[in-house]
Structure formats: C-alpha cells, structure tokens
Give the backbone structure.
Amino acid sequence: MKKNIKPVLTHDQSVDALVKTIRIPARPSLLMNVQQELAQPEPCPARLAKIIANDVALSASLLKLTNSSFFGLRLKAKSVEHAVNLLGMEQCGLLMIGIIARQALKAEDTSLLKFWDFSGKRAQAMSYLSKHIPVCSNDAAHTFGLFCDIGVPLLSERFADYPATLSKANIEFTAIFTTVEDAHHMTNHAAIGALMARTWGLPEEISTAILLHHDYRSLDDASTDDSVRGLIALALLAEYAIQKYHGQELSAEWEKGGHSACHFLGISADDAADRFDELHELFNQVQ
C-alpha cells in the first residue's frame, strides 16, 4: 500500500502560501470611481462630488477635514461640492485615498489610533517638504506618507506576536528593519504594503518606494528611480521629525539612513534641523 507523501514546498512557495492568508483589502469600488474620474482628460468637480456624496460617512469625513485647522481655509465648506471646489480636485482625491484606507482597515479600532495619527502626520510633513525640496510630486509625497506603513495593521491582524516583532525591529540599529520581520514571519510590512498599493491601483513609483523604504542602500543606488529615492528620503526626514516632536531624540532608522537621505536631498545636518523645526510648527498648527 502506497503512503501519501506530502510535497515539499520551496521557500518561495511557502511564502506565497503565507501571503495568501493575509487579508489584503480589495480596492473599494468607490475609490475606483474616484480614480477613474480624476484620470479623465477633463475631470469634473461636480461629478467627483456626486461620487463622494453617495457615501454618507465619506462625505462627513471630507467636510470635517476640509474645515479643519490644517487647511485653514477662509470659508467653511457647506457641502461636498463646495469642499471639492475649495480644495481642488487633486487635493480632494488625496484626502479620499486616506479616508477610504481608514474605512477599509477598520479605523474605529482604537489599537490603530496611534498608527493613523503617525501616518497622517507623515503625509502632512511629506507634502510640506516636497514643496521645499522638490524631489517628487506633492501628490506622490502625500499618498506615500499615508501608505508606506500600510502593511503594519495587516500583519498585526494576521500575527498575534507581530507587535513584539515591530518593537524589536524599531530598536535594531544594524540590521534592515524588514530583515527582522522576515526572520519571524517570512514576510514584512513593506512587501505586504507594496502588494496592497498595487491592488489599489496606486502609481508604480509609490508601490516600489513602499517596498524599498527601509532598505537605505537604494538611496545610494543610481539605478533606482530618482522619484522613488526622493519619497524614501523625505519619509525618513518626516518620520524623524515626528519622533522628535514626540520627545524621541534617538532613532534607529535615522541612524541607519539619515546620512544617505540628507546626501540625496542635498541638505546638511543644519538644514535638516531647520526642517524639523518647521515641521514641528506645522504639527502645532493642526493639533
């Protein structure tokens, strides 16, 4: 009688099988409709407003953000269409991506409040920095700021011990952050985040930057697209500014990649310190 012999999986097959067990939210139809309208040769504010207005929660979130102190608008938005006209279609589209991502990843979960606060600050900071250090588009900077760590809540949902891995990786001053994750879970938040970015139809430069954003060797690699390196460098600058804002003076990631980031951005340590001060003022304005 023949015995049933189970096939031996290769490492890559094992990783593929594991990734299939991680919940990657499908791109919401609402986001697809927003992206399709913005991709039109002549996008229409009224049509975009109509798409957004079909979702009550999304409409309320847009109005709340539009009227927040972050934008400091002289007029208050009284309707979705008014908000679209006040912000402009591109800015409105950026806000939609962030709001929809929060909905898809259960933003009401109190365990994610710190994650979303950090992601929001990083998006704001990168948007500000991209206007003063033009190494990538403002749109890409804001979107990447929101999404670069999007794999973290997905892995937290899949692995009960992932928060412990995250804590360990955050204080690793030598090894690449994602290497620590790989050793414990056979995957990492950068790989999973890049997969979600592609699933959601985000630009290739953003999904590539998400994949590479902890591998600071890419900052010195001329074969890596400049816009990708710009996103990684600005994110590192923004994240260290946020950490310092919250009283954390020593950052493992800044120690590993700060020099390369400043070199790519063409700024000195003093210039970086000035940017940190400017970002701290920005954060104070939106409290």
Q: What stands out?
A: Residues 113-132 form the longest helix (20 residues). The chain has two domains: 26-104, 110-287. The mean pLDDT is 89.
